[in-house]
Amino acid sequence: MNLIQLFDLSLVGRGGKTALEFEGASFTFAELDARANRMASALAVRGFRPGDRLCVQLANSVEMIDLYLACLKTGVIFVPVNILYRDREVRHIVSDAEPRLFVTATEVVELACEAAALPSDRPAAPALDGDAPAGIIYTSGTTGASKGAVITHNNFAANALNLLACWQITEADRLLLAIPLFHVHGLGNGLHAWLISGCRVRLLNRFEHQKAAAEFLDFRPTLFFGVPTIYVRLLDLPSEAALEIGAFMRLFVSGSAPLPAQVLEDFEALYGHRILERYGMTETLMNMGNPYIGERRAGTVGLPLPGVSARVLDPEGRPVPDGQSGELYVKGPNVFPGYWRRKEATRTAFEDGYFRTGDIALRSPDGYFTLQGRKSDLIISGGFNIYPREIEEFLLEQEGVKEAAVAGVADRVRGEVPVAYVVIGEGFDAAAVDAKCRSALASFKVPRAFIPVDKLPRTALGKVQKHLLPRPTSTSGS
Ligand code: MLC
Ligand code: AMP
């Protein structure tokens, strides 16, 4: 099946209903359908064929939705790119995905103009198998360069249907969608839950904490999806506003990074709602969640979602008893088939049909999972992933950097932020390296400090022992 069949429940079935609010404009489902049909024609004019890739590097916008739906309607593979990525990061994705077209804020204007002049007839739907790729989403690989996770129509469908069922999302809901559509959180959870349920969405260009209270109070949503940084920001709202918001909200969901138990408790005291924490990955979409009805246990990611099987294994691949830590493996209709054009990486990502998450977890005797960390040294800052290796490789290219190690330090707002430890040689200039990082790396990857060290602590095999690096005192965010 094509995801569009599910979206047609709303695009066609609820055509007259207001679907979307964006920057003061509103659109019915039928209007969005017509826009997407025109955009599909514009892609056809550009020579797109099923299986071609379209890279889209756009902030949340109606055009981004048009392009996504146009891809699904024509069998084109949608490849969203983080808008914070700079040249170096983008070049890698382009050379790997080989898109027919790369759309940024500049190109989209022309494309939208072309589309507006075309008829809104539905394109003939290509005969797609549910196992066909709907999107390729780049995720920072442990090797430093990011890999494209191929997500099928069936993966996305299984994920969204689970969320509708488990979180009781219906067309009566109002979803305030503030997270970026270029990641699976915004796209696979936010956009898909909206289009299938037929609820009303207010899409924000991005989450701005200064405007959050006004958006909540004006739109009066029932449903909100956020990363922990957003919930930390929401703790700063005045208590009267928080109480008013709490009164019309039905469900707050958090994911993409660990939600500190204290934030969950403080949020509940302020808003009168216990945040539902869930756990996912780009490669697997959503794996686990705390129950909608039942105990939302602080510090845990709850129970496997319907259809998801989970195993916790020791390094020899043997199951560990409940209460003990091991690596988490998952299997289910939500799990991707593999990485784009990377047979070897795909082969090593699976064991016995289960995907190796790289997350260290334990299961309680009553089935709740707690994530305790990662096997790799992944840093998650504001819900964005940072692989230290990528920054280390960049730093080593800079003048005066003899050795470099990047590690995460705790940050009250963003969870973690990266800092760099450098063994410096002649010509090192911290300000110049900082400027280079700012121009070449996404802002969230830029090290917050460069800490000079005489040498990096290494094992006998030469591996840097990051836990032995002197940690600066935790940062407080801003
Ligand atoms: C952040 N920045 C953005 C931005 N988000 N800039 C433009 N558009 C966006 N959407 C930049 C800012 O310019 C700034 O850069 C820095 O990031 C912090 O911004 P801030 O204004 O201080 O925001 P803050 O209150 O800290 O909140 C940041 C945030 C953002 C929460 C809005 O981090 C965010 O949108 N996170 C969501 C990430 C996400 O969706 N992850 C899902 C991955 S999928 P500078 O230069 O000033 O530092 C996944 C699977 C799963 O993990 O389980 O979901
Ligand atoms: P990504 O590669 O961006 O898809 O990020 C996936 C990673 O985010 C997972 O492997 C986890 O390490 C982390 N993650 C997602 N949700 C949670 C959560 N609720 N708690 C802790 N970590 C999470």
3D structure, described in words:
- With 478 residues, this protein is an alpha/beta fold.
- It folds into 3 domains: 3-206, Rossmann fold (3-Layer(aba) Sandwich); 276-374, Roll (Luciferase, domain 3), CATH 2.30.38; 378-468, GMP Synthetase, Chain A, domain 3.
- 33% of the residues lie in helices and 26% in strands.
- The protein contains 14 helices and 25 strands.
- It has helices at 3-11, 29-45, 62-74, 87-97, 105-116, 153-166, 184-197, 209-219, 228-234, 239-248, 261-271, 343-349, 388-396, 430-440, and strands at residues 18-22, 25-28, 53-56, 77-80, 101-103, 133-139, 147-152, 174-177, 200-203, 223-226, 251-254, 276-281, 285-289, 303-304, 309-313, 326-331, 338-339, 350-351, 354-363, 369-374, 379-381, 384-386, 401-411, 415-424, 450-452.
- The strands form 6 sheets. It has a 9-stranded mixed sheet with strand order 2-1-9-8-10-11-12-13-14, sandwiched between helices. Strands 15, 16, 18, 19 and 20 form a 5-stranded antiparallel sheet that branches.
- Strand 12 (276-281) and strand 13 (285-289) form a beta hairpin.
- The longest helix has 17 residues, at 29-45.
- The N and C termini lie far apart (45 Å).
- The mean pLDDT is 95.
- The site of malonyl-coenzyme A has 28 residues, from helix 7, helix 9 and strand 12.
- Malonyl-coenzyme A binds at residues 59, 83-84, 179-180, 183-186, 206-207, 209, 227, 229-230, 233, 255-256, 280-282, 382-384, 413-414, 443-444.
